[in-house]
Amino acid sequence: MSATRRAAVLGSPITHSLSPRLHNAAYRALGLDDWSYDRFEVDEAALPGFLGQLGPEWAGLSLTMPLKRAVIPLLDEITDTAASVEAVNTVVFRPDGSKAGDNTDIPGLIAALHEKGVEKTESAAILGAGATASSALAALARVCTGEVTVYVRSERRAAEMRHWGERLGVRVRPADWADAVRAFEAPLVISTTPAGGTDELAERLPAQVGTLFDVLYDPWPTPLAAAWAQRGGPVLSGLDLLLHQAVLQFRQFTGDPRSPLAAMRAAAGLG
User: Fold this and answer.
1) Which of 68, 99, 116, 120 is catalytic?
2) I need a labelling partner for 132 at 20 to 30 A (CA). Which of 62, 76, 236, 242 fits?
3) 181-200 as b/e: b if 16+ CB within 10 A
4) How many Å apart are CA 47 and CA 11, to the nearest integer?
5) Separation between Cα atoms, residue 174 and residue 161, nearest integer Å
6) Backbone angles phi, psi at 126, to 5 degrees
């Protein structure tokens, strides 16, 4: 049967995205044979035109960099979750033609932590700053009962993270990247740096470590994640985040309350 309902992931670059594999596996597993999910290379300049030419068969879009903030002025409304970090990764097209934005990264991160047994933590550390770090802070607002130390490379980044902490109701203490090895004293560490950003720290782990959530998934494992696992500490990857946020997107796009997590996990090679 030819697809009558469509969804896709947009971004630049986008060829590496696993989202089509995950969503299409979910459709097949749950019998949604008239659904399809694609990927499109779209940058900020091309985004308005792309949105404007979509027909009624479109149900939703997943967004990655650099579109998560650029899309906001093009939407009719966004959820409080998306507004809290000024980032939208999910667009739902409603029957009346309106476009609503949401952020499934934040609840996806929380769900991934819960699956690993991290329900609450007394403190946490974040490596790096930026959009992913702000989403991590938003998740920690619901998981961490104490202070979050954020290790950054500049005073500008420190000021940004203080701002997000105040906005999200999280006690944030910025610290200099030169002291980043201190992050490993925390029971939960979330690394939000680009590939290679924590390689120098991998050889400086203490004997005892808590839980690491490294938001990268390609290449994997990172040197930090590999060293962490050798210490016996629980490790989550960006693939865990991708899976859990994709389940939430699937439900919003299709209106189907079932969970395709098992099918998506198998499609990602984790089954």
Assistant:
1) 68
2) 76
3) eebbebebbbbbbeeebbee
4) 9
5) 7
6) -120, 130
Identity at 2, one-letter amino acid code: S
Question: Are the beta carbons of 132 and 192 closer than 8 angstroms?
Answer: yes
Vertex 242 angle, CA 245 and 171, to 5°: 70
* pTM attached to this predicted model: 0.92
18: which 2 tokens?
Answer: 């696993």
User: Residue 57 contacts by C-beta under 8 Å, 6 or more apart in sequence?
Assistant: 3, 4, 5, 6
Distance CA 91, CA 253 (A): 9
Which residue in the block uniquely carries the two structure tokens 């090679």? 269
SS (H, E, C) the chain: CCCCEEEEEEECCCCCCCHHHHHHHHHHHCCCCCEEEEEEECCCCCHHHHHHCCCCCEEEEEECCCCCCCCHHHCCEECHHHHHHCCCCEEEECCCCCEEEECCHHHHHHHHHHHCCCCCECCEEEECCCHHHHHHHHHHHHHECCCEEEEECCHHHHHHHHHHHHHHCCCEEEEEHHHHHHHHHCCEEEECCCCCCCHHHHHHCCCCCCEEEECCCCCCCCHHHHHHHHCCCCEEEHHHHHHHHHHHHHHHHHCCCCCCHHHHHHHCCCC
What confidence score (pLDDT) does residue 218 get? 83
Q: In the numeric block, which tokens belong to residue 200? A: 């120098």
Active site residue 99: no
Instruction: Render pLDDT for 85-129 as a digit per residue (tens, 0 to 9).
Output: 999 999 999 999 999 999 999 999 999 999 999 999 999 999 999
Contact 4, 14 (CB under 8 A): no
Distances from the Cα of 237 to the Cαs of 38, 130, 154, 202, in angstroms?
A: 23, 18, 26, 15
